[in-house]
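Hey, sorry to bother you again with one of my protein questions. I've been puzzling over a protein and I'd love to understand its fold better. Take your time with it, there's no hurry, and the full record follows here:
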Amino acid sequence: MIKAAFDIVPAERDTTDWNNSMLLLEVGEKFLGCVWVSHEDKKFLGLRQYHIEDIGGKPAIEIMQDIINGDELLEQHSKDTVVIYNFSESNLVPDSVFHADINKPLMDLVFGNAQKGLILSEKIENWNVYNLYRIPRDIHRMLQQRFSARKYWHYYSLQMASFERGEETGKTVLRVVFYVDKFVVAAIKDNELSLVQTYSYQTPEDVCYYLLSICRITGTEQEDVLVKISGLVDEESILYTELRKYFNNIEWDGLPQQTDIDHLLNEFPAHYFSPLLRMAACV
């Protein structure tokens, strides 16, 4: 049985809150995140995160099924389930040129056609763009059968929806979310979206290289950039020390206000789980 890398679930649970909870599932190639919030006020109830390791060549879908079948909380039915796909094959298309007929040709042009996944699209509110993305068809089918979810989103779409446009007028902001072996970055310049992309990395130098490349692409001096960090990184880490060599303006992107009313996350840095909880407020 695969154990959760993070297991933040109170031993004593309010039956009313949990029976009326919303379950958010963040699904990626090597990651399954589960967060429960109250349906009405989005109060944080509990969280489990699993890292999907290669187990003797076992397919990711089978590992996910084992995790879901072995988690007693996932066996219980929440009032609502939202699936958030965190897969990197995504294209952002301006609203003015979007048309459903371009979905498959564009995805095949950018990412090739070796993967025969399911192509979906959705509009990112307030940013005037559509997100076209491809996900594994077998994983989508399994989640449809297992959960009564009626809402499916891409990670980029909900992350952008959680950003308040206009809060950093006149600045270039890099919002960076770290995972174990990858990070997602959104570049926003003068309140316009320049880029949202996922990068794999092995060393802290890799991260700095990519972020400096984004500065060059957006025509921004690195000393003028505000870097907002969340996810699995600590202030004492080698990665954070390396970032400080190149960027003077770094902020931690903490939890939304009034989310962790019961202080269940007090023993963890607030930025560890802020991306998923910010997305919960948008669905």
